[in-house]
Design brief:
The complex is a heterodimer of chains A (466) and B (234).
Chain A: H1 7-25, H2 33-41, H3 45-48, E1 54-59, H4 64-77, E2 83-84, H5 92-101, E3 113-117, E4 134-137, H6 151-161, E5 167-171, E6 186-191, E7 219-225, E8 228-232, E9 245-251, E10 256-261, E11 264-269, H7 275-290, H8 295-302, E12 312-317, E13 320-326, H9 332-344, E14 349-354, H10 358-363, E15 384-390, H11 394-403, E16 411-414, H12 417-421, E17 431-436, H13 441-465
Parallel strand pairs in A: 1-3, 1-4, 2-3, 4-5, 5-6, 6-9, 13-17, 14-15, 14-17, 15-16
Antiparallel strand pairs in A: 7-8, 9-10, 10-11, 12-13
Helix pairs in contact in A: 1-2, 2-5, 4-7, 4-8
Chain B: E1 2-6, H1 18-26, E2 31-35, E3 51-54, H2 59-69, H3 73-82, E4 86-89, E5 99-101, E6 107-109, E7 116-120, E8 126-134, E9 137-145, E10 147-151, E11 159-163, E12 173-174, E13 176-178, E14 181-184, H4 190-193, H5 195-204, H6 215-231
Parallel strand pairs in B: 1-2, 1-3, 3-4, 4-14, 5-7
Antiparallel strand pairs in B: 5-6, 7-10, 8-9, 8-11, 11-12, 13-14
Chain lengths: 466, 234
């Protein structure tokens, strides 16, 4: 797959390296400009660039960043020297930028290993030039309908472009992702049946309802969420694959999970109580074990890990828990998972929901169709006492909540995020969830500060009364 | 009052099912018949269906649905002629066209009910906002599609575009409207976004006293979106 280097390649490499240096001087590390530049000058650049011997790729709809962060942190903690695109983009330009950083002036790789988060939609521009040793596919769900269209489209791109030499690490509980690259060598993972699993799907969307071979309705033994679960076709051999690594027990009290592989059981410290992150952990464990790390090495690193604060944070403040959680707008499954998580947490809660794409709204108007594939219905729960929905599309958000049969008295809807937050009612509340879009991290911090201000004010009022 | 939803296990992309969920809120007494791919369509045996609906579907599903509907080709033609009310959203109208053409020139034969054909361009998805006019009602919406439709719809278009594209980038005439058959490429909560058209649709469904669920808020959101769209240049 390695292509012969041309004069154009060297010119592009040196120019890209020069731009990397300039960006470093100006402390602009997160950009994919060097990669863009290299690809503009030499479209086959990725095919000519030297690559590390071991390439770990992580793709799929949700959890790519978290799985990569886990792999990166544990490898670093165990003294591995490697490159990654943690601070860069996961598209072809971002991947080229990462590999340029790890390459010599002659275009040879300086490192023996790379960990790459790979955008599934960009795989047609990546895999023809790069063969991952291992490729994790955590799940395939509906995502931005404007970019990713539907799961069949994404699966078809992956099927077409994933190199046949790549060893796939796939989620067996996801019927769509576990059937990708079916002629490749595979390692499957799964979480065995949970008490919270149901017979019927509780979500609006389930992207595989009939057998793709004979179109008979699939029979689910249990549904975890959306199309995640265990299913089979009553007419043919299509169904959930047998997993090689299985989480057989989750002990939330001890923050521990048991992983079974080839009759052996191993226990791991849980980084998070969220089922999505347990899948993420399991995928990371398999990659790390394939690289030769022991359970002890992996587990002692897990004990030090935290989910990145911009994705999830929890703070106790004067008796209230304030939780910020990334809920990618336009991604119906990510938002549905976040809503489900909120309703299932103990205590009385307020949910502050800010999911509008403010970048789009600045010069255009957001396509809000995704809201109707998202389970806002999960916010209709007795334990959620108030829902604050704010942002430029606050009226659409309000109507979506009404469509979910949520009582209007429970809803605050305002355009301004802070003015909406000021309407919070803290009486009898244990937890305040701030569910925010990827592009609203700063705004989520401002909301959190406002919530703290409101809590301070309430504490002061109480003290005065006493 | 009966609404038949065709093949909801396939034709449920892009939030389109919100249209049916909203109609349920507006017409609580309506019976919603969900016809799956292994069932005989209710429109073939029952004469009192007030609305036949089909939503956005994948490319593979289009082929499955075409095969499924082939035996009912004449029946669908006859129903359209008789004034049966249909609403097709997203790319679902393509199954009723002459053919769907792939990038490599290969063609999938459609039901041939309308003399239009679709062309796929799977690596270049079209996304746009839409503002147009249907019989004095301003229609707003979103397009997100891999295909464009070609053919002459001058005599049977649904909406005249003021902003955005019609059935293809060279056309300002969006969708198909023939007798009581309505098809539009606008996706998602079309009826929620367009309360005035929803009222019209309910009239055509012969709802006795058509009333919009959450009317005040729906109209407020509609007016706000309309105002915003009118500030945009496309």
């Amino acid at each position: 797959m390695m292509q012969k280097k041309t004069v154009k390649f060297y010119f592009a490499l040196w120019l890209a390296k020069g731009s990397s240096l300039l960006l470093k001087i100006f402390r602009r590390n997160g950009t994919q400009l060097p990669g863009k530049l290299a690809l503009k000058l030499c479209p086959n650049f990725l095919g000519m660039l030297g690559k590390p011997n071991t390439i770990i790729g992580v793709t799929g709809t949700n959890g790519k960043t978290t799985v990569c962060n886990m792999i990166n942190d544990i490898l670093t903690d165990n003294g591995y020297d490697f490159v990654n695109n943690k601070y860069g983009s996961n598209t072809n330009a971002g991947i080229v930028t990462t590999l340029i950083k790890g390459a010599t002036m002659s275009g040879k790789s300086k490192k023996d290993m790379v960990v790459l988060e790979i955008d599934e939609r960009s795989s047609n521009r990546i895999f023809p030039y790069l063969t991952p040793t291992y490729l994790v596919c955590n799940n395939i769900f509906r995502d931005s309908l404007q970019r990713n269209a539907h799961t069949e489209f994404i699966a078809s791109i992956l099927n077409k472009y994933i190199p046949k030499e790549t060893i796939m690490i796939e989620n067996a509980d996801d019927l769509i992702c576990s059937h990708i690259a079916d002629n490749n060598q595979k390692i499957y993972f799964s979480i065995s049946q949970l008490k919270t699993d149901t017979k019927e799907c509780q979500n609006i969307t389930r992207d595989i309802r009939v057998c793709p071979k004979c179109y008979a309705p699939l029979e689910y033994e249990y549904v975890r969420y959306h199309h995640i679960g265990k299913a089979h076709c009553p007419n043919c051999d299509y169904g959930t694959r047998k997993a090689d690594y299985v989480v057989t027990n989750i002990n939330l009290d001890n923050k521990e999970m048991t992983v079974q592989h080839q009759e052996q059981e191993e226990k791991y410290h849980l980084v998070s109580n969220n089922i999505i992150n347990i899948y993420n952990m399991l995928a990371a464990i398999i990659v790390l074990k394939q690289l030769g790390l022991t359970r002890e090495q992996i587990n002692s690193s897990f004990a030090k890990l935290k989910i990145v604060e911009t994705r999830f944070s929890e703070e106790e403040y004067h008796g209230y828990h304030i939780i910020t959680q990334l809920s990618k707008g336009m991604n119906p499954i990510a938002c549905s998972r976040a809503f489900d998580y909120v309703r299932k947490q103990p205590g009385n809660k307020v949910a502050i929901v800010v999911l509008d794409d403010t970048h789009v709204e600045a010069n255009s108007s957001e396509n809000t169709a995704w809201q109707y594939d998202t389970d806002y219905e999960f916010l209709k729960d007795d334990s959620i006492k108030q829902i604050i929905i704010a942002g430029p599309r606050y009226l659409d958000g309000y109507i979506r909540l009404m469509m979910a049969d949520i009582e209007p008295e429970k809803i605050v809807h305002e355009k301004d995020l802070i003015e909406a937050t000021e309407k919070i009612q803290l009486e009898g509340i244990d937890k305040i969830f701030i569910l925010h879009d990827l592009y609203l991290i700063q705004e989520a911090k401002q909301i959190k500060n406002k919530v703290k201000e409101m809590i301070d004010q309430k504490s002061e009022e109480r003290a005065n009364e006493e | 009052m009966k609404i038949e939803v065709l093949f909801p296990e396939f034709c449920n992309l892009s939030g389109d099912m919100a249209n049916i969920r909203y109609l349920r809120k507006c017409i609580p007494e309506a019976e919603v018949i969900e016809t799956s791919i292994d069932m005989e369509p209710a429109f073939n045996t029952q004469e009192d269906i007030n609305l036949i609906y089909m939503g956005t579907l994948s490319e593979i599903a289009q082929e499955i649905v075409i095969q499924k509907l082939k035996p009912y080709q004449e029946k669908i033609k006859e129903l359209i002629e008789k004034g049966q009310l249909f609403l097709f959203t997203g790319n679902s109208v393509e199954v009723l066209g002459s053919y769907i053409e792939n990038e490599d020139g290969s063609k999938i034969q459609g039901l041939g009910i309308f003399n239009v054909h679709a062309k796929r361009d799977m690596m270049h998805r079209h996304n746009s906002l839409f503002l147009g006019d249907y019989e004095g009602i301003e229609i707003v919406g979103f397009k997100s599609q891999f295909t464009m439709l070609y053919g002459n719809n001058e005599q049977n278009y649904f909406i005249k575009a003021k902003m955005g594209v019609g059935i293809n980038p060279e056309s300002k005439l969006e969708g198909i409207h023939q007798n009581n058959f309505f098809a539009t490429y606008l996706i998602g909560p079309f009826l929620i976004l367009n309360p005035q058209f929803t009222l019209k649709l309910m009239e055509l469904m012969k709802v006795e006293k058509p009333t919009l669920a959450f009317e005040e808020d729906m109209l407020k959101a509609y007016q706000e979106r309309l105002a915003k769209f009118k500030t945009l240049t496309y």
